[in-house]
Specification:
The complex is a heterodimer of chains A (about 170) and B (about 160). Chain A has about 170 residues and is α/β, with parallel strands linked by helices. Chain A has one domain: Rossmann fold. Chain A is built from 5 helices and 6 strands. In chain A, helix 1 runs antiparallel to helix 5 and helix 2 packs across helix 5. Chain A starts with a strand and ends in a 12-residue tail after the last helix. Chain B is built from 3 helices and 7 strands. In chain B, a hairpin with a 7-residue loop joins strand 3 and strand 4. The chains are: A alpha/beta (about 170), B alpha/beta (about 160).
Chain lengths: ~170, ~160
């Protein structure tokens, strides 16, 4: 966006395209839906707290209805019994939507290599950003939100547009 | 010798296979035929009063015969005593009578033992899986369940 300030402190004007204006609005008003099932959820609370303050990135308004959320933040172990619930919540979210897979468990099953834990949520839903760690610290969540903001800003394809991965 | 095991042997001389009190943990291996009777006796005898069924677990001794074992962990809030009652079950007939009528709270433990080991509790009011989902095949804590086996993910029912 090009911004031209007016002379003597008066009102100026800005030149942009509609797409980048919408992207600019979207990137600073991401409403997350936290799907916290394990210790990662505690770190999510830390990220929303005053110390790390995720609201600096415009992503502090947690929606507890998937119909009002933009970002699905999957924080924790997803087992096979929970998998249909996660899939349904993802399906209920409105487009455009993004998914963050937080921590080792959500991303790959973590150290739960057994009969009951889903080996990564990308087996059932598309994921835009992965956060490594067990659990990751709140800076990891901030980093993932900034990654999502970059996807929005640059107009890069969302993971859902490349889904399913062949 | 402990009071609990003495009472048990006096009352059921032919059904108690063996007992021990290693490290002060009273344990009795009994036959499965009269297990409900034995458990009811443990609950109601005024010297014992085991009113609290703390846990019920299954064990898989793969390669041994009988293969399965059911363990009742009982506690008496009145007498402050604990006892373990063990029952061995054969692989081709892993069936035992339910103890729900003795302690209603043992219901979910029996469902867990069914889910994880495939032990059938005859007369149980609602014997279905409690931890795994309905479409799951097999019993995952059996020692011959393959470690790397993965089952299809069940989608949201439409």
């Amino acid at each position: 966006m090009a911004v031209k300030p007016g002379k003597g402190g008066g009102t100026g004007y800005a030149l942009t395209t509609l797409e980048s204006l919408i992207a600019w609005g979207r990137k600073y008003s991401l409403y997350p839906f936290t799907f916290a099932t394990a210790c990662c959820g505690i770190e999510v609370m830390g990220a929303f707290g005053t110390h790390y303050d995720l609201s600096r990135f415009g992503a502090e308004v947690v929606r507890f209805s998937p119909r009002q959320a933009d970002v699905l933040l999957v924080a924790g172990t997803i087992n096979y019994k929970m998998a249909p619930v996660l899939k349904r919540i993802y399906d209920q979210m409105l487009e455009p939507k993004w998914v963050i897979s937080m921590g080792a468990c959500a991303s790959s099953g973590g150290f739960y290599n057994n009969y009951t834990v889903l080996q990564g949520i990308d087996k059932i839903i598309p994921v835009d950003a992965y956060i490594p760690g067990c659990p990751p610290n709140p800076e990891g969540i901030i980093d993932a939100v900034v990654q999502i903001q970059k996807i929005i800003e640059t107009g890069a394809p969302r993971a859902a547009e490349r889904w399913p991965i062949k | 010798m402990s009071v609990v095991l003495d009472r048990l042997r006096e009352r059921f001389p032919s059904d108690v296979v063996s007992t021990h009190s290693d490290f002060g943990d009273d344990t009795a291996l009994v036959r499965r035929e009269r297990v409900v009777e034995i458990l009811t006796f443990l609950r109601d005898n005024p010297d014992l009063l085991f009113d609290f069924a703390m846990d019920l677990t299954g064990v898989d001794y793969l390669g041994e015969e009988p293969r399965f074992e059911v363990v009742y962990h009982l506690y008496s809030l009145e007498r402050k005593r604990r006892v373990r009652i063990k029952v061995r079950l054969h692989e081709d007939d892993p069936v035992i009578d339910t103890a729900v009528a003795v302690w209603p709270g043992i219901d979910w433990y029996e469902r867990e033992a069914w889910d994880m080991y495939g032990i059938v509790f005859r007369g149980h009011p609602n014997l279905k899986r409690i931890l795994m989902y309905e479409g799951f095949e097999g019993h995952p804590l059996r020692k011959d369940y393959p470690k790397a086996r993965r089952q299809p993910t069940i989608g949201p029912e439409e």
